[in-house]
Amino acid sequence: MKAECLCGAVKLTAPDVSEVGACHCGMCRRWGGGPFLALHCGTEVKFEGQQKIKAYPSSEWAERAFCAECGTHLYYRLKATGEYFVPAGLFAEIPNATLRSQIFIDKKPDYYRFADETENLTEAEVFAKYAPQ
Question: CATH class for domain 2-130?
């Protein structure tokens, strides 16, 4: 699948993925002004225009990156595994896309909600399932 930032300075290629996840944590909402809707693209993401990518170490376990030219959010990447979570909006098309999961559901504010039935994990459940031991 092909994606690019708003100005086209950064392009990426990712494996075919159709499951969209939403993160409602405060950091994601502050980063993008709402929930982070992303595709879990694994480690096989390729970039063009890497000189325009600016990464920010947002926590001990992850970094977030954006295009230094237009500011488009490019990815959330887990440092330990190198797995990329890419904003769904970067892709012109996502064949058969479905909203499958929501994390930090207990941090979601009351002013929005999704109608789709999804797997929902609280903050405690996310850390229990994914935090390095």
Answer: mainly beta
